[in-house]
Design a protein that fits this description.
Layout lengths: L2 H24 L8 E5 L5 H10 L3 E4 L2 H12 L8 E4 L18 E4 L2 H17 L12 E6 L13 H11 L5 E7 L7 H21 L7 E3 L6 H6 L4 E4 L1 H4 L7
Parallel strand pairs: 1-2, 1-8, 2-3, 4-5, 5-6, 6-7
Helix pairs in contact: 1-2
Length: about 250
């Protein structure tokens, strides 16, 4: 990897962290409460390695096949620190097995049927691995529930009312652990983005009060164009791709 690219990734990371810190301070938040996911879905293994050297430790992929390619590529470098991958894109049911046990968090549980399918696969896998692991804690997949707060037809996810209706059944699924909510805001409209993130936070707070046994602390929202607004509105996870990896993407 060209040293100038690696240096640019490192420079951009520092600028991103400064913007997160400034946004958190405006909202009276601790910037340490915001986790940065570098969305690596459009770059190669070399670019991921440059990002690791720059300090990134969590990456986001949206296709299981590409996730596998990245994991295999990084495994060839035994001098790298440990990193984690999250699944951030639409997950097809026939690809669930390719993701389980390989990602820390699935951000995009967009329907009750998908939640049930993931939970079922986890439990099936646990049964297959049961043999002599009786003392081992059972594997549970951490997930976020994707909410289409803005109501755009082009976006997937539960509507807020659908999620309210589905929650009693979702919290009973023993193969998954619901850690919070995820959304995507309309592009190119800062005020619409702010409303979307604010409404997601309010919905999370409502559900956390209704289901106190659940740890719903995570809010995954904010991308390259709008992450400072998301931080101001309570995001705990920002998913950044172009602003991390593309030298042509303008850093304000």
């Amino acid at each position: 990897m060209d040293k100038s690219y690696a240096d640019e990734v490192a420079r951009r990371r520092q600028a991103i962290l400064e913007r997160i810190e400034q946004a958190a301070e405006r909202a009276g938040r601790d910037p340490a409460d915001v986790r940065l996911v570098a969305v690596s879905k459009t770059v190669g293994v070399d670019e991921v390695i440059a990002a690791i050297h720059a300090g990134y430790r969590c990456f986001g992929e949206n296709r299981p096949q590409e996730l596998g390619r990245k994991l295999a590529g990084l495994a060839e470098h035994d001098d790298l620190p440990t990193v984690r991958f999250d699944m951030i894109g639409n997950l097809q049911k026939n690809k669930i097995n390719a993701v389980l046990g390989r990602v820390g968090l699935i951000h995009s549980i967009s329907s009750a049927h998908l939640a049930e399918a993931v939970s079922s696969r986890v439990l099936k896998h646990a049964g297959e691995e049961k043999a002599d692991t009786a003392m081992k804690a059972p594997f549970v997949q951490d997930v976020l529930l994707e909410v289409n707060v803005s109501g755009e037809e082009s976006k997937s996810g539960f509507s807020p009312d659908e999620l309210r209706r589905a929650m009693p059944d979702l919290v009973e699924l023993s193969g998954i652990r619901i850690r919070g909510l995820m959304t995507m805001a309309p592009r190119g409209d800062a005020e619409a983005a702010r409303r979307t993130f604010s409404e997601l936070r309010e919905l999370r707070d409502e559900l956390a009060a209704a289901y106190p046994a659940q740890d719903l602390g995570e809010l995954s929202c904010g991308m390259s164009e709008d992450f400072p607004i998301a931080v101001e509105e309570g995001s705990t996870v920002v998913r950044l791709g172009r602003v991390v990896f593309d030298p042509a993407f303008e850093l304000e």
